[in-house]
């Protein structure tokens, strides 16, 4: 019996390594559009963040998303993410 390898990714907010399935993937498409990738399979440069407000606030403060996606992220995008995370936390 072989153990299946669990892919690990680093959160851009808290900088902790966690299983890929526990994190939210944020991508930058080739058109420089920033989206939340629910499937985890869309094309684009990706960054991962924990599904809680504290990590999002840390990512905003330390510019973790901007550094990972190599593009400046407008404030409206962060507000959209905050609403999305609110929806995820209530499920």
Automatic annotation (TrEMBL):
Signal peptide: none annotated. PANTHER family: BLL0784 PROTEIN (PTHR34215), YLXR DOMAIN-CONTAINING PROTEIN (PTHR34215:SF1). Residues 9-82 form the YlxR domain. SUPFAM superfamilies: YlxR-like. This is YlxR family protein. InterPro entries: YlxR (IPR037465), YlxR-like_sf (IPR035931), YlxR_dom (IPR007393). Pfam families: YlxR. NCBIfam families: RNA_bind_RnpM. It comes from the Bacteria.
